[in-house]
Structure formats: C-alpha cells, structure tokens
Write a structure and sequence with these properties.
Blueprint: H1 2-11, H2 13-30, E1 36-38, H3 40-50, E2 53-56, H4 60-64, E3 72-73, H5 76-79, H6 83-86, E4 94-97, H7 102-113, E5 118-121, H8 124-130
Length: 138
C-alpha cells in the first residue's frame, strides 16, 4: 500500500503538489485569527440561547432585499469605524452576515482585535435562504 502511494506521488507529482498547496491554504485561512464559522442552525441557537447580535455587513440596498430578523446593517466598509456603535453589544456574541460568507471573515478581524466575540455565518445570507430560514424586508 505504501509503495503504491509513493509510486503514485512520483508519477503524479504535479497533482500532489497542487493538493498540498490547497490543503496548506485552507489550513492557513482557517487558523489566521478570523471569526469562527457557524452554520445557519448554530447561528439560530446563538441568537436564541446567547442573545447573539446579528450584524449584516452587506450594502444597504442588499440589506433591504431581505435580512435576518433583528439584524443591524453596518456595511463592511464602515465596520472598522463602528466599534463604538457596537460597544453596547460587547458582552454578546456577534454574528457577521454577508452575501456568501467570504467578506465576513476578513471583516471580523478588527472586531476581534477590539475584544468582541465574533462569528461569521457560513455561506452568508445565501446559505441562510437555502436552509429555508426566514428573512424580513424593510
């Protein structure tokens, strides 16, 4: 078995190198101090059990098309300057929501540095909708 793995690795070194690069990238992204990822179901539990505050970081026009009940809209470009606004929520978990889960990870770092307990919604609002969970429009 080990001989076959070595032979495969030697014959397909390009594929092995790409696999190693992808694995290293994924590990680096997940461990570089960003927010923890929560599924829509886990986010619902945090909201209900721990009174988590949902901060939707999409632009206002996207926020108006549908958002989680009770969420606060602070676009990602303004999030860094909004830690004073969020100060009253420092004792509660904060769940960042974006369109597809990518922006929330990078946006979380300043809040984490400021001492907030930050999570990001896995897959963003897109995954929330795919899970059949409700949105409100205002």
């Amino acid at each position: 078995m080990m001989n076959q793995l070595i032979e495969f690795s030697l014959n397909h070194w390009e594929m092995v190198a790409v696999f190693i690069a992808i694995a290293a990238t994924v590990i680096f992204i997940e461990t570089r101090g960003g927010a923890r990822t929560v599924t829509p179901a886990a986010a619902t539990n945090l909201i209900n059990d721990k009174e988590a505050v949902v901060v939707d970081i999409r632009p206002a026009n996207e926020f108006r098309t549908g958002h989680l009940t009770g969420s606060i809209n602070i676009p990602s470009a303004k999030l860094k300057d909004s830690s004073d606004t969020l100060e009253k929520y420092k004792s509660s978990p904060i769940i960042l929501v974006c369109k597809n889960g990518m922006t929330a990870g990078s946006s979380s770092k300043e809040l984490i540095k400021s001492g907030f307990d930050v999570y990001k919604l896995q897959g963003g609002i897109t995954e929330w909708q795919s899970a059949g969970l409700p949105l409100v429009k205002k």
